[in-house]
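Archive maintenance. Older records in this collection stored only the sequence; we are now back-filling the structure field for every entry so that each record is complete. The fields below show one back-filled record exactly as it appears after the update. Entries are processed alphabetically, and Sema domain-containing protein is next in the queue.

ARCHIVE ENTRY
Title: Sema domain-containing protein
Organism field: Scyliorhinus torazame
Length field: 453
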Amino acid sequence: MCVFIELGPRAEEPVFQLDLQSLESGRLKCPFDPQQHFASVLTGEYLYAGAASDFHGRDPAFTRSLGPPSNQYYIRTDLSEHYWLNEAKFIGAFSIPDTYNTDDDKIYFFFREATEDSSTSDKSIFSRVARVCKNDIGGQRSLINKWTTFLKARLVCSVPGPDGVDTYFDELQDVFLLHTKDERNPVVYGVFTTTSSIFKGSAVCVYSMADIRASFNGPYAHKEGPDHRWVQYDGRIPYPRPGTCPSKTYDPLIKSTKDFPDEVISFIRYHPVMYKAVYPMRGRPVFTRINVDYRLTQIVVHHVMAEDGHYDVMFLGTDIGTVLKVVSVTKENLIAEEVVLEELQVFKGPSPILNMEISSKQQQLYIGSRDGLVQMWLHRCDIYGQACAECCLARDPYCAWDGASCSRYAPASKRRTRRQDVKHGDPISQCWDLEESECFYTFFCRSCFVRVF
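Back-filled structure field:
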């Protein structure tokens, strides 16, 4: 069952009340079991959701529901074709415009699913990014009330090996969109883990929307039968290109997906997979954890201005209740250095972190698990000691030496009161003129001060 919530009169102190006049079935809007993977986004009064349609979680579907009463179109993925979704576990769904033409607006959703090796019949796990057009209303004679613009591509997160054999992190666990000045091009951060029970590892890979769109604009994959491998489709592609959103700008005769020719509908029904995968920026992860006693589960990212540039600070949740505060620093030789700023034990016990949200305005991080909800500051500069050298060695983009203490970095402050070196962590270059009897040493902070609700 789905219910609607009314907010109180004051936005800063909302009072939540159930609207008992607005009740409807929650099937395909939320999971039957809270343990099942689920993703959704509400945009333009429509709910786009990825969830299992049965109690046992055997029938995953990505759907659109709700909407204004005069314009409701319930759409879902095709159940009859396992090419579309196969034991999918949904991770995230986002509304991302592709161009300045609103007819091109799409919903991108991320998930992982099973795929069978035709040579061995063994199942593997692939991570995927898929998309559908917002103005998709299904087909006229085929794919009725089904997506007619559904396409998916593989997300690859791997570490190149010295012998040419890559180490793959195949299981997508979480996705975070870091928004930029261009709303069409957010940066996509993904947390991945290995599928092997012997080799245990996690990685963070970063993708550009340009690379994701390039995959969807590239060749389609083709599979002649269940015992054949996916190969590049070299046949004729019908018009309009399958996966294109209907728009009067492109073709005045195609006003909606119901105007698509039958050959377009038939093509996309059996060719929803793109042949070329999406690879991470720089061709490798920005952060890895291998052979440790935990796996990464959640990620949020904050774009921070520092004295020597801009940095994306990652907050990574684990399955043992800890949070890693990490920054990837690119050196002059374009080699990225992984810097773990803090490792915080958030919960008393090893409770897996299930949700993380960030508030840039409040400068707060919110962390959820089965044990409760935790609130903590994004920066705690006072823990880095009482000397300039200690503050610089921390390499925290949030913190700088202000002449008296290690405090929150303020870009507008005067040069002599903002001593910081995130890229190199060199206290000598920053604190050479200060008369301090201090040792220069590196340290690792494990303290944590949080509010528990």
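Update note: Residues 436-453 have pLDDT under 50 and may be disordered. Residues 300-339+354-453 form a domain with the ligand-binding face of the semaphorins, domain 2 fold (CATH 3.30.1680.10).
Entry marked complete.
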